[in-house]
Design a protein that fits this description.
This protein is an alpha+beta fold and about 375 residues long. It folds into three domains: about 120 residues, Rossmann fold (3-Layer(aba) Sandwich), CATH 3.40.50.20; about 70 residues, ATP-grasp fold, A domain (Dna Ligase, domain 1); about 120 residues, D-amino Acid Aminotransferase, Chain A, domain 1, CATH 3.30.470. The protein has twelve helices and 17 strands. Strands 12, 13, 14, 15, 16 and 17 form a six-stranded antiparallel beta sheet that branches. The radius of gyration is 23 Å and the shape is globular. It starts with a strand and ends with a helix.
Length: about 375
Protein backbone atom coordinates (compact mmCIF):
# COMPACT_ATOMS: atom_id res chain seq x y z
CA UNK A 1 0.00 0.00 0.00
CA UNK A 2 1.35 3.42 -0.99
CA UNK A 3 2.10 5.97 1.71
CA UNK A 4 0.57 9.44 1.40
CA UNK A 5 1.61 12.34 3.62
CA UNK A 6 -1.13 14.94 4.11
CA UNK A 7 0.28 18.35 5.10
CA UNK A 8 -1.91 20.89 6.90
CA UNK A 9 -1.73 23.76 9.39
CA UNK A 10 0.97 26.41 9.05
CA UNK A 11 1.53 29.98 10.20
CA UNK A 12 -1.44 31.65 8.52
CA UNK A 13 -4.75 33.24 9.57
CA UNK A 14 -6.29 30.35 7.63
CA UNK A 15 -4.52 27.69 9.71
CA UNK A 16 -7.70 26.44 11.38
CA UNK A 17 -9.48 26.07 8.03
CA UNK A 18 -6.44 24.14 6.84
CA UNK A 19 -6.80 21.75 9.78
CA UNK A 20 -10.41 21.08 8.72
CA UNK A 21 -9.38 20.40 5.10
CA UNK A 22 -6.39 18.33 6.17
CA UNK A 23 -8.28 16.07 8.56
CA UNK A 24 -11.07 15.63 6.00
CA UNK A 25 -8.47 14.41 3.48
CA UNK A 26 -6.73 12.22 6.09
CA UNK A 27 -9.93 10.45 7.06
CA UNK A 28 -11.26 10.04 3.51
CA UNK A 29 -7.95 8.64 2.24
CA UNK A 30 -7.47 6.15 5.08
CA UNK A 31 -8.03 2.63 3.84
CA UNK A 32 -7.21 3.70 0.29
CA UNK A 33 -3.58 4.45 1.21
CA UNK A 34 -1.38 4.36 4.27
CA UNK A 35 -1.98 7.96 5.39
CA UNK A 36 0.51 9.94 7.50
CA UNK A 37 -0.86 13.29 8.75
CA UNK A 38 1.84 15.97 8.92
CA UNK A 39 0.85 19.01 10.97
CA UNK A 40 2.69 22.32 10.55
CA UNK A 41 2.44 24.15 13.92
CA UNK A 42 2.22 27.96 13.73
CA UNK A 43 5.53 28.24 15.60
CA UNK A 44 7.29 26.27 12.84
CA UNK A 45 8.53 22.75 12.17
CA UNK A 46 6.52 19.61 11.42
CA UNK A 47 4.77 17.06 13.59
CA UNK A 48 2.73 13.91 13.30
CA UNK A 49 0.58 11.94 15.71
CA UNK A 50 -2.44 9.72 16.15
CA UNK A 51 -4.77 12.41 14.85
CA UNK A 52 -8.40 11.40 14.40
CA UNK A 53 -10.28 14.65 13.89
CA UNK A 54 -10.25 18.43 14.17
CA UNK A 55 -10.92 18.16 17.92
CA UNK A 56 -7.29 17.06 18.29
CA UNK A 57 -6.25 20.63 17.40
CA UNK A 58 -8.63 22.64 19.58
CA UNK A 59 -7.21 24.89 22.29
CA UNK A 60 -8.44 22.39 24.89
CA UNK A 61 -6.89 19.30 23.30
CA UNK A 62 -4.01 17.48 24.98
CA UNK A 63 -2.84 15.91 21.75
CA UNK A 64 0.67 14.47 21.59
CA UNK A 65 2.55 15.93 18.64
CA UNK A 66 5.67 14.02 17.54
CA UNK A 67 8.21 16.41 15.93
CA UNK A 68 9.39 15.14 12.54
CA UNK A 69 11.70 16.19 9.70
CA UNK A 70 11.95 15.39 6.01
CA UNK A 71 15.08 13.69 4.73
CA UNK A 72 14.58 12.99 1.07
CA UNK A 73 11.34 11.03 0.78
CA UNK A 74 11.67 9.76 4.34
CA UNK A 75 9.86 11.17 7.34
CA UNK A 76 11.95 10.87 10.51
CA UNK A 77 11.21 11.62 14.14
CA UNK A 78 13.22 14.61 15.33
CA UNK A 79 15.32 14.18 18.39
CA UNK A 80 18.67 12.95 19.65
CA UNK A 81 18.31 9.89 17.44
CA UNK A 82 16.36 10.33 14.23
CA UNK A 83 14.12 7.31 13.75
CA UNK A 84 12.68 6.65 10.26
CA UNK A 85 8.88 6.61 10.40
CA UNK A 86 7.99 6.04 6.76
CA UNK A 87 8.95 6.61 3.14
CA UNK A 88 6.53 8.99 1.43
CA UNK A 89 5.23 7.96 -2.00
CA UNK A 90 3.16 11.11 -2.53
CA UNK A 91 2.19 14.27 -0.66
CA UNK A 92 -1.09 16.17 -0.54
CA UNK A 93 -0.92 19.85 0.42
CA UNK A 94 -3.93 21.05 2.45
CA UNK A 95 -2.33 24.26 3.78
CA UNK A 96 -4.39 27.40 3.12
CA UNK A 97 -2.52 30.67 2.97
CA UNK A 98 0.97 31.53 4.17
CA UNK A 99 3.98 29.43 3.28
CA UNK A 100 1.76 26.41 2.70
CA UNK A 101 -0.04 27.95 -0.27
CA UNK A 102 2.53 30.43 -1.59
CA UNK A 103 4.81 27.75 -3.05
CA UNK A 104 7.19 27.35 -0.11
CA UNK A 105 5.93 23.89 0.87
CA UNK A 106 5.71 22.83 -2.79
CA UNK A 107 9.35 23.86 -3.30
CA UNK A 108 10.42 22.00 -0.14
CA UNK A 109 8.71 18.82 -1.31
CA UNK A 110 10.32 19.10 -4.74
CA UNK A 111 13.76 19.70 -3.20
CA UNK A 112 13.36 16.48 -1.20
CA UNK A 113 12.10 14.58 -4.24
CA UNK A 114 8.61 13.94 -2.84
CA UNK A 115 5.95 13.59 -5.59
CA UNK A 116 3.08 16.02 -4.98
CA UNK A 117 -0.62 15.73 -5.77
CA UNK A 118 -0.93 19.51 -5.36
CA UNK A 119 0.07 22.58 -7.41
CA UNK A 120 3.77 23.30 -7.93
CA UNK A 121 5.75 26.21 -6.48
CA UNK A 122 5.69 28.55 -9.49
CA UNK A 123 1.90 28.86 -9.99
CA UNK A 124 1.38 28.91 -6.21
CA UNK A 125 3.69 31.91 -5.92
CA UNK A 126 2.10 33.62 -8.90
CA UNK A 127 -1.52 33.33 -7.75
CA UNK A 128 -1.07 33.72 -4.01
CA UNK A 129 -0.59 37.42 -4.74
CA UNK A 130 -3.90 38.87 -5.95
CA UNK A 131 -2.13 41.68 -7.80
CA UNK A 132 0.03 39.39 -9.92
CA UNK A 133 -2.96 37.07 -10.38
CA UNK A 134 -4.94 39.90 -11.97
CA UNK A 135 -2.00 40.82 -14.20
CA UNK A 136 -1.66 37.23 -15.41
CA UNK A 137 -5.41 36.84 -15.97
CA UNK A 138 -5.64 40.10 -17.92
CA UNK A 139 -2.62 39.06 -19.97
CA UNK A 140 -4.50 35.91 -20.98
CA UNK A 141 -7.49 37.99 -22.08
CA UNK A 142 -9.64 37.21 -19.04
CA UNK A 143 -11.60 40.28 -17.81
CA UNK A 144 -10.86 41.73 -14.36
CA UNK A 145 -12.57 44.64 -12.58
CA UNK A 146 -10.58 47.92 -12.45
CA UNK A 147 -8.08 47.68 -9.60
CA UNK A 148 -4.98 49.22 -8.07
CA UNK A 149 -2.18 47.95 -5.86
CA UNK A 150 -1.22 49.92 -2.74
CA UNK A 151 2.07 49.08 -0.98
CA UNK A 152 2.55 49.69 2.71
CA UNK A 153 5.91 51.47 2.26
CA UNK A 154 4.38 53.92 -0.24
CA UNK A 155 1.31 54.46 1.98
CA UNK A 156 3.43 55.24 5.04
CA UNK A 157 5.70 57.50 3.01
CA UNK A 158 2.91 59.44 1.30
CA UNK A 159 -0.56 58.31 2.33
CA UNK A 160 -2.22 61.01 0.25
CA UNK A 161 -0.67 59.83 -3.01
CA UNK A 162 -1.35 56.17 -2.21
CA UNK A 163 -4.99 56.95 -1.41
CA UNK A 164 -5.41 58.92 -4.65
CA UNK A 165 -4.39 55.86 -6.69
CA UNK A 166 -7.19 53.88 -5.05
CA UNK A 167 -9.75 56.73 -5.16
CA UNK A 168 -9.15 57.15 -8.90
CA UNK A 169 -11.15 53.93 -9.35
CA UNK A 170 -14.22 55.61 -7.84
CA UNK A 171 -16.14 54.74 -4.69
CA UNK A 172 -17.35 52.32 -3.45
CA UNK A 173 -14.23 50.14 -3.32
CA UNK A 174 -13.21 46.74 -2.05
CA UNK A 175 -9.96 46.86 -0.08
CA UNK A 176 -8.19 43.67 1.02
CA UNK A 177 -4.74 42.26 1.77
CA UNK A 178 -3.03 41.04 -1.40
CA UNK A 179 -1.91 37.67 -0.05
CA UNK A 180 -4.64 36.45 2.30
CA UNK A 181 -7.80 34.48 1.70
CA UNK A 182 -11.03 33.36 3.40
CA UNK A 183 -12.36 36.96 3.27
CA UNK A 184 -9.99 37.97 6.09
CA UNK A 185 -9.30 41.71 6.17
CA UNK A 186 -11.79 42.56 3.38
CA UNK A 187 -13.65 45.90 3.58
CA UNK A 188 -16.17 47.80 1.48
CA UNK A 189 -15.27 51.51 1.65
CA UNK A 190 -17.21 54.58 0.56
CA UNK A 191 -15.22 57.46 2.03
CA UNK A 192 -11.62 58.53 2.44
CA UNK A 193 -11.83 57.91 6.18
CA UNK A 194 -13.04 54.35 5.58
CA UNK A 195 -10.29 53.88 3.00
CA UNK A 196 -7.59 54.85 5.49
CA UNK A 197 -9.07 52.51 8.08
CA UNK A 198 -9.29 49.61 5.59
CA UNK A 199 -5.72 50.12 4.37
CA UNK A 200 -4.47 50.25 7.96
CA UNK A 201 -6.24 46.95 8.65
CA UNK A 202 -4.85 45.37 5.47
CA UNK A 203 -1.32 46.48 6.34
CA UNK A 204 -1.59 44.94 9.78
CA UNK A 205 -1.85 41.60 7.95
CA UNK A 206 0.22 42.13 4.77
CA UNK A 207 2.56 44.71 3.27
CA UNK A 208 0.54 44.91 0.07
CA UNK A 209 -3.14 45.68 -0.48
CA UNK A 210 -5.57 45.55 -3.38
CA UNK A 211 -8.23 48.17 -4.04
CA UNK A 212 -10.81 47.33 -6.68
CA UNK A 213 -14.07 48.78 -7.86
CA UNK A 214 -17.02 47.36 -5.96
CA UNK A 215 -19.60 45.62 -8.16
CA UNK A 216 -22.90 46.24 -6.38
CA UNK A 217 -25.01 43.63 -8.17
CA UNK A 218 -22.32 40.96 -8.40
CA UNK A 219 -22.83 37.24 -7.98
CA UNK A 220 -20.07 35.05 -6.48
CA UNK A 221 -19.29 32.16 -8.83
CA UNK A 222 -16.72 29.38 -8.34
CA UNK A 223 -15.25 26.90 -10.81
CA UNK A 224 -12.53 24.31 -10.22
CA UNK A 225 -10.13 22.30 -12.36
CA UNK A 226 -7.78 19.36 -11.94
CA UNK A 227 -5.80 16.99 -14.11
CA UNK A 228 -6.75 13.33 -14.57
CA UNK A 229 -4.64 11.03 -16.72
CA UNK A 230 -3.14 14.11 -18.32
CA UNK A 231 -6.53 15.62 -19.23
CA UNK A 232 -7.80 18.85 -17.64
CA UNK A 233 -11.20 18.36 -15.99
CA UNK A 234 -13.27 21.48 -15.24
CA UNK A 235 -16.21 21.51 -12.85
CA UNK A 236 -19.59 23.07 -13.41
CA UNK A 237 -20.05 26.51 -11.88
CA UNK A 238 -21.25 27.05 -8.31
CA UNK A 239 -22.93 30.19 -6.96
CA UNK A 240 -22.30 31.06 -3.32
CA UNK A 241 -24.98 33.26 -1.74
CA UNK A 242 -24.34 36.13 0.63
CA UNK A 243 -26.50 38.43 2.76
CA UNK A 244 -23.66 40.92 3.08
CA UNK A 245 -21.91 43.27 0.68
CA UNK A 246 -19.04 40.81 0.36
CA UNK A 247 -18.94 37.09 1.10
CA UNK A 248 -17.64 37.00 4.69
CA UNK A 249 -15.57 34.49 6.64
CA UNK A 250 -18.63 33.67 8.74
CA UNK A 251 -20.77 32.97 5.68
CA UNK A 252 -18.06 30.75 4.19
CA UNK A 253 -17.42 28.60 7.24
CA UNK A 254 -20.02 29.11 9.98
CA UNK A 255 -23.53 30.36 9.14
CA UNK A 256 -23.85 31.19 5.47
CA UNK A 257 -26.82 31.27 3.11
CA UNK A 258 -25.54 28.28 1.19
CA UNK A 259 -24.91 27.80 -2.49
CA UNK A 260 -26.44 26.51 -5.70
CA UNK A 261 -24.71 23.86 -7.80
CA UNK A 262 -24.77 24.07 -10.68
CA UNK A 263 -25.25 27.84 -10.72
CA UNK A 264 -28.24 29.26 -12.58
CA UNK A 265 -26.30 31.18 -15.23
CA UNK A 266 -26.86 31.94 -18.90
CA UNK A 267 -25.09 29.18 -20.83
CA UNK A 268 -22.62 31.55 -22.59
CA UNK A 269 -21.59 33.09 -19.25
CA UNK A 270 -21.08 29.69 -17.62
CA UNK A 271 -19.00 28.52 -20.56
CA UNK A 272 -16.88 31.69 -20.43
CA UNK A 273 -16.11 30.99 -16.77
CA UNK A 274 -15.24 27.35 -17.40
CA UNK A 275 -13.09 28.32 -20.40
CA UNK A 276 -11.26 30.97 -18.36
CA UNK A 277 -10.60 28.43 -15.58
CA UNK A 278 -9.23 25.97 -18.12
CA UNK A 279 -7.08 28.69 -19.74
CA UNK A 280 -5.46 29.61 -16.41
CA UNK A 281 -4.84 25.97 -15.52
CA UNK A 282 -3.40 25.12 -18.92
CA UNK A 283 -1.30 28.28 -19.33
CA UNK A 284 0.54 27.60 -16.07
CA UNK A 285 0.79 23.83 -16.67
CA UNK A 286 -0.82 23.16 -13.30
CA UNK A 287 -1.27 19.94 -11.39
CA UNK A 288 -3.61 19.06 -8.54
CA UNK A 289 -6.87 20.92 -8.01
CA UNK A 290 -7.40 24.70 -8.03
CA UNK A 291 -10.53 26.83 -7.73
CA UNK A 292 -11.15 30.04 -9.66
CA UNK A 293 -13.50 32.66 -8.21
CA UNK A 294 -15.41 35.06 -10.45
CA UNK A 295 -17.74 38.02 -10.04
CA UNK A 296 -20.69 38.00 -12.40
CA UNK A 297 -22.85 41.00 -13.20
CA UNK A 298 -25.54 40.50 -15.82
CA UNK A 299 -23.95 38.13 -18.32
CA UNK A 300 -20.43 39.46 -17.80
CA UNK A 301 -17.90 37.48 -15.71
CA UNK A 302 -14.79 38.99 -14.11
CA UNK A 303 -11.91 36.97 -12.72
CA UNK A 304 -11.44 37.63 -9.00
CA UNK A 305 -8.78 35.22 -7.72
CA UNK A 306 -7.39 31.70 -8.06
CA UNK A 307 -7.19 29.50 -4.95
CA UNK A 308 -4.22 27.15 -5.29
CA UNK A 309 -5.20 25.14 -2.19
CA UNK A 310 -8.99 25.62 -2.07
CA UNK A 311 -11.14 24.85 0.97
CA UNK A 312 -11.92 21.11 1.17
CA UNK A 313 -9.77 20.89 -1.99
CA UNK A 314 -12.96 21.80 -3.89
CA UNK A 315 -14.09 18.20 -3.56
CA UNK A 316 -17.73 19.32 -3.26
CA UNK A 317 -17.54 20.50 -6.90
CA UNK A 318 -16.62 16.99 -8.07
CA UNK A 319 -18.64 14.79 -5.71
CA UNK A 320 -22.02 14.97 -3.96
CA UNK A 321 -21.19 12.62 -1.07
CA UNK A 322 -18.26 11.90 1.25
CA UNK A 323 -17.66 8.66 -0.63
CA UNK A 324 -17.41 10.46 -3.98
CA UNK A 325 -15.18 13.19 -2.51
CA UNK A 326 -12.95 10.43 -1.15
CA UNK A 327 -12.71 8.95 -4.65
CA UNK A 328 -11.82 12.41 -5.97
CA UNK A 329 -8.98 12.79 -3.44
CA UNK A 330 -7.80 9.29 -4.37
CA UNK A 331 -7.74 10.31 -8.04
CA UNK A 332 -5.58 13.36 -7.22
CA UNK A 333 -3.05 11.15 -5.42
CA UNK A 334 -3.06 8.48 -8.13
CA UNK A 335 -2.42 11.17 -10.75
CA UNK A 336 0.69 12.24 -8.83
CA UNK A 337 1.86 8.63 -8.53
CA UNK A 338 1.36 7.94 -12.24
CA UNK A 339 2.79 11.20 -13.58
CA UNK A 340 6.28 11.06 -12.11
CA UNK A 341 8.58 13.26 -14.24
CA UNK A 342 11.34 11.65 -16.25
CA UNK A 343 14.81 12.19 -14.87
CA UNK A 344 16.66 14.73 -17.00
CA UNK A 345 20.36 14.77 -17.73
CA UNK A 346 22.42 16.70 -15.20
CA UNK A 347 25.33 18.81 -16.45
CA UNK A 348 28.52 19.77 -14.61
CA UNK A 349 30.63 22.49 -16.22
CA UNK A 350 33.92 21.70 -14.46
CA UNK A 351 34.63 25.41 -14.08
CA UNK A 352 35.56 25.06 -10.41
CA UNK A 353 38.59 22.98 -11.41
CA UNK A 354 39.95 25.76 -13.62
CA UNK A 355 42.88 28.04 -12.71
CA UNK A 356 41.03 31.26 -13.48
CA UNK A 357 37.60 32.64 -14.30
CA UNK A 358 38.00 35.19 -17.03
CA UNK A 359 34.74 35.12 -18.95
CA UNK A 360 32.37 38.07 -19.33
CA UNK A 361 30.32 36.96 -16.29
CA UNK A 362 33.04 35.81 -13.88
CA UNK A 363 35.83 37.11 -11.67
CA UNK A 364 39.18 37.74 -13.39
CA UNK A 365 41.25 35.38 -11.28
CA UNK A 366 40.18 32.89 -8.68
CA UNK A 367 43.04 33.71 -6.28
CA UNK A 368 42.27 37.42 -6.18
CA UNK A 369 38.61 37.24 -5.26
CA UNK A 370 37.21 33.80 -4.49
Amino acid sequence: MKTVAVFFGGDSPEREISVITGMLAVNLLRGRFRVVPVYLPPEGGMATGRYRGVEDFSSRARTRHIPVVLEGCRLLSRGRRRKPLCTIDAALNCCHGGMGEDGTLAALLKWHGVPSASPAAAPCGAFMDKATAKIFAAGLGIPVVPWACVREAAWRRDGEAAARAAEALGYPLIVKPARLGSSIGVHVVRTREQLDTALGDAFSLDDKAIAERYVADKRDINCAAYRLRGKICVSLCEEVFSAEEVLSFCEKYEAGKGSRFPADLPAPCAEDIRAATRTLYEAFDMQGVVRADFLVTGERAYFNELNMIPGSLAGYLFGDSLASVGRFYKALVEEALSALPAQKRKIGTGILDGAQFCGAKSCKRRGNFV
